[in-house]
Protein: LysR family transcriptional regulator
Amino acid sequence: MDDLIPNIRHLAAFAATVEHGSVTRAAEAVNLTQPALTQAIAGLERELDCQLFEREPTGMRPTQPAILLVPRVKSAIEKIGSSRATATQLRAFLALARAGSYASAAETTGLSPASLHRAVADLSYAVGERLVERRGRHLTLTRKGEARARGLGLAIADLRSGFAEVAAWLGKAGGRIVIGAMPLSRARWLPRAILRFRAQFPSIDLAVVEGSHAELAHPLRNGEIDFLLGALRSEEELDDLEQEPIFEDRPQIIMRAGHALSRGTTLTAAQLTQYQWIMPSSLTPLRSYWEEMLAYAGCSPPRVAIECGSVLTIREILLETDMLTLLSPDQLRVEIEAGLLTVLKPPAPVKRVIGITTRRDWHPTAQQRAILTILRETAPQIS
Structure:
């Protein structure tokens, strides 16, 4: 169900039948004939492999799978913006939004650029909005187009969750959870949680998308990932996201074994500025904490010789040079335990809050709630 978009009219017919409890009234509401509506519901039942309604003399009574699914379907249709939009139109527009050109979108979908252009134009007409525009030789989404692309991503996430909940109720627990993971969460916290979750839910697929906060926040907002793990940001940056603190991490100064500074126990301001540093970008909380640590020690931050957020790259550079970094020991645990790297306490305590970030209006499935619970329970073991 990632980009597998069901027939939107079938979904609208299903939602209307739940709401009205009658094929006749539902058909009028979505402007379908009664045979077409009945056929739409039958198609959805085949796709889900379950019965959605009990046909009774007084009308159509939704079954438990229908009750589970209908809130997700209504939310998805609202985000899509029109029950007249087709799956082909939505798939074409989503491919265009991601690829940035009709030619690139054609490569990913297998459709011709002309077919894509026609589908996107038809979608624009269906939702009553201009979605794309040309600026010179470049194609861009309009502001409404950007909002529509985001809504489509969230609609797909809603439907994916709804189908997963129905499958779980049927005892076919399948589905997929997509986790955004910033560097620290990948060291020990997330792997331990994944092992526990897999033991309880072996049929649920997990996908881990790695990156920085800047790289992962957009996919989170668009519904491409379900939640994000890592260092929390200031609240003013996240008006549409919610953050849950889980544990505190205490970064340390790390260097190669045998480094001249490793012979002492207390670091002075002069020593901290004597060597070159490798640090993440200035947009990260860790960089700010590093600057505050140096200010506490009584010195101005030196020039960052290498700006890098990759732990693998940082590790190799530390092993081969006298450079320093400020990082969580958990992220370099293997090298530290092997005696290849040395850890010293910073001149002032440095701590950062690690947690879970979600969309403010997110409604997790039972399986998503389960892995969040495991993450909360696993974190104190390593904090």
In short: The chain has three domains: 1-172, 173-248+352-383, 251-350. The longest strand covers residues 241-249. Residues 27 and 34 are 6 Å apart (CA to CA). The chain has a mean pLDDT of 90.
